[in-house]
Design brief:
Layout lengths: L1 H6 L5 H16 L8 H11 L5 H13 L3 H13 L3 H8 L7 H10 L4 H11 L5 H15 L8
Helix pairs in contact: 3-5, 4-5, 5-7, 7-9
Length: about 150
Amino acid sequence: MRAVRGLYMDLDENGKARTDNALTDLYHSGSHLLAVELNVSYFIQTLGLRHSDAKEKILLALFEQHSNPYLRRQIILTMAKWQRHYWLTDVKKEFNRTTEWERRAIIVSSYRLGDEGEHWRRHNKHLWSPAEKLIRDWAADRTQANKLDGIA
């Protein structure tokens, strides 16, 4: 999984499409490779390199299947990178019931929601820890510098 992730961006469009098909087949076949959370992490990272509806459906299923906060964080950030506003809107509603890792990803992702995200941040900042406020400031700076794409 790590090797695939490392080589993916060097592939031509045909190679990326074939790799995407192999990855979705891996998931749908219930491969034992995805039984190890470390492999799932690299799998999520590789899926996130390029959007497709099929890969989005897999990420949504993985989000529901896994309770690992790091994996869920990766999915939140990928969905933000893909600008999946409908999903981010729903996830931020669960902010108070999420783990520290997920909360931080939601804060960063809120910058993809435009005015909706700004309104949400303004009305929820009193709930945030000092570390979460630092993350908010970092994400605000990255957004102003137009560098938020590289976070997922």
